[in-house]
Amino acid sequence: MKKLAVLLPAYNAASYIKESINSVLNQTFVDFDLYVYDDCSTDETAKIIKSYQDLRVFYIQNGTNIGVTKTLNKGLDFLLPKYEFIARMDADDWCFAKRFEKQLEVLEKQPEIILCGTQGYWLKDLKIQPNEGWTYPTDPKYIKYYLLFGATFGHSSVIMRSQTMIANNLRYDETKINCQDWELWVRMLRVGKLVNLPDFLMKYRILENSNHRATEKQKIHYQNRSKIIANYWGDFGVVFSEKEINDFYYSTQKVLDSEFKIKLEQFIDAFNSVFLISKSELSREDQKNFSYLLARKLLSYWKRSGVSRKNLSIWFLMVRKVQFMNKAWLLKSLIR
Question: In what residue span(s) does the Glycosyltransferase 2-like domain sit (predicted)?
């Protein structure tokens, strides 16, 4: 079995795919093959890919346009039996030269890790060299809880362990045109450890017409998010409907004070419960980070609800009910 395959789906990516491929071919770890799956592009994507003379580059064209999720599964079905690890890469992103080297070092030393991501910079212009960026959690124990609120991994940064994917029949959910990565990570978490490196090894290109930013796809995006999150809360013994998740996490619809109090108390109870579970697993620092994350989610819902911040009964409810944070810290978080 060969060591590493890179799975890169592409569709009408002529304006940036060369940057992506070049960054992959420039890796310090060189023992890999790059498979570019072209989903019937109508621009110069195919011509650009075929221009490479590097024997590690393989071009595959779908017979018809099937979308990114089915394309990814098509690639996994072909590559998993042949390679020990599968790296993801997107046609519009860029990776630093030591990405594969650093990720494989971790995966080979720790066989219990089944997926390894990295930190990355989110940019409209990949020529920019940032000095810092916001970070994803690195500890698998904190990742377990962070997945309740976000996808937690840069999709094109991850490397997956093939043996685990095969043994547990893990593939992307083809009913989803977006959030398919988040849904897969939740299922992978149930059978092994997922980690992020602390190193910034990716640049992600911000495109306004991407699967989750395009206006016409945002409704589906939030529906998929809500379904994934509601399902995952069940792993912690908490039952939420997709609508309840959407209302609390994303909705900007104004609500009556009485309705807001009921929903707020429901989520405070859930947050208290999950934080109590997490205390036996998380480090002191991650406990602190998690408690602030929970407080920010409550405040976000309050701001979006249209309920006045001067409503003293809400303040009393928060102070009385919240158990996941020191009362003084809670008040400071809410005042900010």
Answer: 6-143
Domain that holds residue 330: 252-335
The number of distinct structural domains making up the chain is 2
Q: Among 139, 138, 120, 140, which residue's Cα sits nearest to residue 130?
A: 120
Could you tell me which residues come within 8 angstroms of residue 21 by beta carbon, excluding any fewer than 6 positions away?
A: 8, 34, 36, 48, 49, 52, 57
Question: What's the CA gap between 334 and 330, in Å, rounded?
Answer: 6
Assigned domain for 263 exists = yes
Same domain membership, residue 257 and residue 116:
no
CATH number for position 161: 3.90.550.10
Is the confidence at residue 212, as pLDDT, over 60?
Answer: no
Residue 173 CB neighbours (<10 A)? 17
Q: Which residues lie closer than 8 Å to 114 by C-beta, 6 or more apart?
A: 160, 161, 164, 165, 188, 191, 192, 193, 194
Q: Where does the chain have alpha helices with state H?
A: 17-25, 45-50, 68-79, 99-109, 140-146, 162-167, 180-189, 218-233, 242-249, 257-278, 284-305, 312-321, 327-335
pLDDT score recorded for residue 178: 94
For helices 284-305 and 257-278, angle between their N-to-C axes, nearest 10 degrees: 170
Q: Last residue of some domain: 182, 205, 228?
A: 205
What would the mean pLDDT of 237-262 be, rounded to a whole number? 96
Q: For residues 13, 114, 146 and 131, what is the CA-based torsion angle, rounded to 10 degrees?
A: -60
Predicted TM-score (pTM) of the model is 0.95
Residue type, 151: A
CA trace torsion 11, 17, 22, 24 (10° rounding): -40
- CA end-to-end span of the chain: 54
Reading phi first (left if > 0) and then psi (alpha if -120 to 50, else beta), residue 154 is in: beta
**Domain match, 186 and 256 both:** no
Question: Is residue 201 domain-shared with residue 260, that is, in the same domain?
Answer: no
Q: Of the candidates 172, 205, 238, which is a domain's last residue?
A: 205
Would you state the pLDDT for residue 210? 60
Question: Is position 171 within any domain?
Answer: yes
Predicted pLDDT at 209: 62
